Amino acid sequence: MVEKCFIPTSLAEALEIRKETKARPLAGGTDLMVQYKQGQGITPVFPWPVMIISSIGELRGIEKGEDGSVLIRALTTPYEIANCQDVPYPVREAASRMGAVALRNSATIGGNIGNASPKGDLPQPLILLDATVVLKSLDGDREVLLDDFILGSKKTDLRDDEIIYAVRIPKVEYTHVFYRKIGTRRANAISKLSLSCLIRVEDGAVTDFRASSGAAGPKVIRSRETEAILKGRRLEDVKSLIPEVLDGWNRAISPHAMPEYRRNTTRRMLEHFLLESVSASSECIIH
Ligand SMILES: Cc1cc2nc3c(=O)[nH]c(=O)nc-3n(C[C@H](O)[C@H](O)[C@H](O)COP(=O)(O)OP(=O)(O)OC[C@H]3O[C@@H](n4cnc5c(N)ncnc54)[C@H](O)[C@@H]3O)c2cc1C
After folding, report:
1. pLDDT tens digits, residue range 82-120?
2. Final residue of a domain: which of 169, 201, 223?
3. Could you list the residue range(s) of the whole structural domain that residue 90 is in?
4. Are 49 and 148 in contact (CB under 8 A)?
5. Candidate of 2, 6, 30 to mutate for ligand 1, largest count of ligand atoms within 8 Å of Cβ
6. Sign of CA dihedral 243, 245, 247, 249
7. What is the whole-number distance in angstroms between the Cα of residue 115 and the centre of ligand 1?
8. Ligand 1 center to 108 CA (angstroms)
9. Do 95 and 221 share a structural domain?
10. Cα angle at 36 between 183 and 49, to 5 degrees?
11. Are residues 198 and 154 located together in one domain of the fold?
12. What is the pTM of this model?
């Protein structure tokens, strides 16, 4: 039984319904249907009105802006993201490792963000890239950093008259990039830990360095303080600064389960990324 179910066919209609009834958006339903299931073969019971948004065409598609940014609308699936070369490498890679084939064709980026699980695969590389969330309501649009929009485990700053319209990834230039998800299997496994890193080297100096980790705290971890240790430093000095970076990173993460395992594994991955970046002679993906 569903308290009340709406099926809007346009964004305008969806925003009206959202404002009037506060109905919760249901996109692919791969989180909501599981969270509220009553048993095998029994229709889930939702304690609030629901709005099935999957037929709203305005919420689909990926668009590259003239400034090099990439707009991924809310109903875009992991399969579409993984196969779009305009999407930066770590986000494509994360999308390609979500669930199994059926899930990658039915889940959505809007749902992955709306669910705000610390183990969700897409927020981690998106936060590395300083992505923003575009939110729409009848009162207008707002655009906020995804890192600020996700408040904690399963908590977001979504207002009850808003819909996630899209995620915008600004143009980010890097010379070396890394993405790794640790799960029980290569795909079709919830992340035990994930890490993305990027570094930009220009004229022998580090002009950008970032790292973000998923499942290592109540939300995706970025440590701007730790990132600042390498910014502006000569590439030949990076090796000697690695212990300081690893110490900073260790202080930033706060895994609640298997903390030693998660701390050691992220430290090793980060160290591997930095050592490989220092020795790589040209731009590359670090594996
Ligand atoms: C078998 C299985 C395997 C899975 N494997 C993975 C995995 O490997 N990695 C991973 O990250 N996740 C995984 N998940 C979780 C889930 O598939 C993802 O979080 C998915 O991206 C959710 O998208 P959805 O469209 O199905 O969300 P829904 O279930 O439709 O919605 C999830 C939440 O987001 C809100 N929401 C959805 N769209 C919007 C919108 N446009 N505006 C505002 N709020 C919105 C909903 O109200 C709800 O609160 C798995 C789930 C299952 C069942």
Report:
1. 999 999 999 999 999 999 999 999 999 999 999 999 999
2. 169
3. 5-53+60-169
4. no
5. 30
6. negative
7. 6
8. 6
9. no
10. 130
11. no
12. 0.96
